[in-house]
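Go through this chain.

——
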Amino acid sequence: MPHVVSAPADPFTLAGSRVVVHQIPDAHDNLIWVLEDPHTGTAAAVDGPSASGVQAFAEDRGLSLTTILNTHTHADHIGINRDYERRGQLHSMTVIGAASRAHDIPGLTRAVSEGDNVQFGDATLEVLETPGHLDGHICFTGHGALFCGDTMFAGGCGYLFDGPPSAMRHSLSKLAALPGSTRVCCAHEYTQDNLRFAWLVEPDSGPLAARIRDVWEIRAR
């Protein structure tokens, strides 16, 4: 089954740094975000169902993947860890994930919690704890970007496997407090399904109607 994204987003540079962010479509609708430090030729991946797409990308660009950032422990997000573990390469990587789920993250080398900082290249990302989709879910934010895993998507939030709704509401309020210019890097492409549901909730919303027209036009192409 082909990926729902046929044209990945253009790379962008984290504000005030040299780190370049690339979008790698994987599986059917997963979006892996790869951070490239062009100064050292190293890369970091945020989640992923497998290692194949990231590894091919790294080899094509002559990069060495040194770091994995895990937002949560669903199989399509720590699958990249398990894949590199099978390849015998995970032991040489820095693996960063939630302290509260430390025993569930393959190869974890650094357990983090709310307010901790993660350094890659000359970029510093802050850890936000965002339960709701899953207990122990975390996000990474900084330099005008947010890597939010399955907490938030275009037009909607993540399915509440653990919940409760109040936890997700609190998590989303943290993300809403970030600057409006923040570039959101979510882990799936669910936009059309989310907007269909949003239209059921807010059928009189002019901005929502405009967003739906724009998205359907893009997907038609």
Observations:
- Residues 72 and 137 are 5 Å apart (CA to CA).
- The radius of gyration is 17 Å.
